[in-house]
Structure of RNase adapter RapZ:
Amino acid sequence: MRIILLTGISGSGKSVALHVLEDAGYYCVDNLPPSLLCDLVATLIGEDTQRLAVAIDSRSSASLRGLPTDIGKLRDQGHDVKVIFLTANTHSLVARFSETRRSHPLSHSFRANSNPASRRTLIECISEEREMLSAIEMLGHVIDTSDLPASKLRSWIREIVKIEHAPLTLFFESFAFKHGVPLDADLVFDVRALPNPYYDLTLRPLSGKDAPVITFLDAQPKAGELLADIRGFVEKWLPSFKNDNRSYLTVAIGCTGGQHRSVYMVEHLAQYFQATERVILRHRELS
């Protein structure tokens, strides 16, 4: 059976991702206690279900510790189990809870307490949840949704579903340092030392995917040198990540605005590695 375990920090987009998986034909279960996972799989096998997506979060804190063991058991039984962990920075999470006016799941147990001073704040709930889920975060592919529109998250989840059986997938992601480093990055490279096309008024409205910007950066010797260094580093260490049984490796390339230099680098790196690897491109700041 193909099993996707969807977990992560509350408010990071698990409901959006679960709906995508449901649309993709997965049998979806939300907020399943981890202790029931193996029994659910056994039941669905008897009903000839081939694809299962399960959302697990901090509301099942009592049985979270046993989840890594249960995942190992399922894999030993021959099931293809993938873990997707959604996260976001605290500022983004606070803003989302404020917009929706929903309470954090960990705050519910304190409602019956008559002493308001003893209740956790939203930030305290988020901090505790990060600690509770820290062991699970290392089990799969992490997606940082801090500055990610729901439409782009849906697109990324669809891409992951399509390639879920590949031994290792390379994600090349461009981003803007002014908006923060992606939390899901495994390797981060800074290309802000390169000449910036932004200061050319004819190039400013374009991106690193457009021919004039490509021509501009192709003419910069440092751009070629840095591209070769990054490519060589990834190429050298990629076998080690494969030997570590990694399913995903996210290489994030950042510049100031995430529009020109980082996009240019990601496009070139993806084109190079596509000849031998499974590659997905992400441009976080481009619409």
Summary: Residues 110-114 have pLDDT under 50 and may be disordered. DSSP finds nine helices and nine strands in the chain.
